[in-house]
Specification:
Elements (H helix, E strand, L loop, with lengths): L3 E6 L2 E6 L5 H21 L5 H49 L1
Antiparallel strand pairs: 1-2
Helix pairs in contact: 1-2
């Protein structure tokens, strides 16, 4: 059963269902969003709340997509290196068995 917890983001209180997440994780998410909103406020002080929410969402989406691209690149590199190591081992095993 999912519990509801209250979190504060940019001075507003939100009731959030935890779902499968722990309350600590939901608080961590809320703190991250709050921090990003405050960072945006520092650079654009007169932005209406709805625009700030959209800008924050875009910034977080940018973070996510950059990490996703990095993950895919590293996964590809790992796959390539693994194939190279397997080929080297097979080559060495083949040399030993001759």
């Amino acid at each position: 059963m999912a519990d509801d917890i209250e979190v504060e983001i940019f001075g507003q209180t939100f009731r959030v269902a935890t779902g499968d997440a722990t309350p600590a994780y939901i608080r961590r998410l809320a703190a991250y969003v709050d921090q990003r909103m405050r960072t945006i406020t520092e650079s654009a002080k007169t932005v209406p709340m709805h625009r700030m929410a959209v800008l924050t969402a875009l910034n977080i989406a940018d973070d996510f997509l950059k990490l996703q691209d990095q993950y895919e690149h590293l996964t590809h590199m790992l796959h390539t290196k693994t194939e190279q190591l397997i080929a080297l081992v097979q080559e060495q095993v083949g040399d030993v068995s001759r």
